[in-house]
Task: structure prediction
Amino acid sequence: MGKTQLFKTVIIGVCAWLLILEVNAQSNFLYIQSENNAPYVLNLKGNNYNSNAKGYLLIPQIQNGDYSIVISVSVDQKQEYTYSFTIADKPKGYSLKLSQEGEWILMDMVTLETIRGLSLDNSGTGSAEKQVQKLSERSTDKVIEIVYSVKNGRKTDKVDVTIPKSTTSSVRKKTTKQQ
Result:
């Protein structure tokens, strides 16, 4: 009976040790893709990582902890942004997006939480170019016409918005039920 009990204890101990090794062997990774397929350079702990031409980057074997990264987007090389986040027991995936204010933000692909970067302004201008800008507005008796310039990745589109004005005032009359 003693040998059987010792044998079971050794087997359970070996299985527990292998399980601990397996859990420790699993490592996290960091995945970032740019929304508009713009390539970028990411600096993590003094190492530079380049995304592929379509804006995808996978950094394997990231340990748990707090991280601060610097991202410089190729379309806008003069602007660098610093982002801080924590990795805890699971991989992280982010989408790198250009906001309407013209700044690059990270959006967590699972929680949809956004992280605004701290701008390291190397351009000397102090601000990033806006993604949407109002060019003109004209109002007539019949319509309101507004023209916008919209940056879409590397190209800029001109968008004309026409809003018709109502010429008749419509009033809804209250109806009562007859009983």
User: Anything to note?
Assistant: The chain has two domains: 27-121, 132-164.
